[in-house]
Amino acid sequence: MRFWDASAVVPLVAWEKETANCRKLLAEDTEILVWFLTPVEVVSALARRRRENSLGAAEFRKSQEQLAQLERRWSEVILAEKVRERARRLLEIHPLRAADSLQLAAALIACEENPQSLFFVILDRRLLKDAAEKEGFGVLGM
Question: What is the pTM of this model?
Answer without folding.
Answer: 0.93
